[in-house]
Amino acid sequence: MGSLARMVGEVGAAVLTGAALTMAQAPAQAAAKKAISVPCSSPALATAITAANAIPATLRLAANCTYNITTPAVAGDTALPPITGNVTIIGGPSTSLRRDPSIPVARLLRVDAGGRLDLEGVFVLNGIGPGAGGGAILNNGTLVLRSDTLSGNTGPNGGAISNGGAANALISRTVIRTNSTPGSGGGIINLGSLTLSESRLSSDTAGVDGGGIATIPGGTTNLVQSTIDRNVATGTGGGVYNAGTTALSRTLVELNSAGPGGGGGIRNVAPGTVTLSVSTVRTNTPDNCSPVNTIAGCTN
């Protein structure tokens, strides 16, 4: 497909350059951390996260293992101990974090202010987020996802991820699919800073706005060389709902659907802004973009 820098415009190139630097720095950071091998046991993983919060550490999870959490670390809130330090978690192949159905409510992971989580090669499944939302992950610090899959999660807002107002998230080569919320942001709700690159938001659903992703006032979202498809919003913005700032570069938005309010592909709410750079918005229902003729480069 060619180099990323060549395929995107100047804005997209700048975003990718920043993402590449962050990703390039991450392995070096991980190498400098203490390495801890975690056996296939959810209590062992909880103990390892608590230890890693105290010192920068890389947790290497067992391959072909499902860490099935039956006892939440924070009752009624989070399955695993909140991330308060600098923690890297590496799984694969076929490593999963999963909320056991016996727990009525528990998101899988929470990153608190000042904390940083790098998560790579992990399936994050079946989380149910309370309060601030984020069925899989609630981020109030720094979150870096690489080559992960978030599926089957639900929360009040942000079926998979809720990215807080002072938070920063960088998501790459990740699939976010079949998550749901009765509120906004079937896949992701973003109130802070978020970049999604070389990733897919697919078949997520929202009871209100933003079947794939919802960006709230004050939030900034960059979608780079990604696919937003087959998402559904009962309200508006089947694929993308924006009331902040959203930029799409080399991104495809297709086959999403919204309610009578429109914006099957993209719904923009003034004074929010949406910009398209070498991106395609097509075959969405009942229209591609709403309001009509307010997003340059998008036609219905």
Could you walk me through the main structural features you see in this protein, from its secondary elements to its overall organization?
By secondary structure, the chain is mostly beta strands. It has a single domain (4-290), classed as Pectate Lyase C-like (3 Solenoid). 13% of the residues lie in helices and 37% in strands. The protein is built from three helices and 30 strands. It has helices at 4-7, 10-32, 42-54; strands spanning 34-38, 57-61, 65-69, 86-90, 95-99, 109-111, 116-120, 123-125, 137-139, 142-146, 149-151, 161-163, 168-172, 175-177, 180-181, 188-190, 193-197, 200-202, 205-206, 213-215, 220-224, 227-229, 232-233, 240-242, 245-249, 252-254, 266-268, 273-277, 280-282, 289-290. It has a ten-stranded parallel beta sheet with strand order 1-2-4-7-10-13-17-21-25-28, sandwiched between helices. It has a nine-stranded parallel beta sheet with strand order 3-5-8-11-14-18-22-26-29, with helices on one face. An eight-stranded parallel beta sheet has the order 6-9-12-16-20-24-27-30, with no helix packed on it. Strand 1 (34-38), helix 3 (42-54) and strand 2 (57-61) form a beta-alpha-beta unit. The longest helix has 23 residues, at 10-32. It is elongated and about 55 Å long. The two termini are 28 Å apart.
* Spatial ordering of strands, largest sheet: 1-2-4-7-10-13-17-21-25-28
Query: Which overall shape is indicated by the principal axes computed on the Cα atoms?
Result: elongated
Alpha-beta content class: mainly beta
Share of β-strand residues:
35-45%
Low-confidence stretches: 1-30
CATH topology: Pectate Lyase C-like
| Total DSSP E strands | 30
Average pLDDT: 91
> What is the tally of helical segments?
3
Q: Note the gap between the termini.
A: 28 Å
Number of domains: 1
Largest sheet: 10 strands, parallel
Oligomer: single chain
| Rg for CA atoms | 18 Å
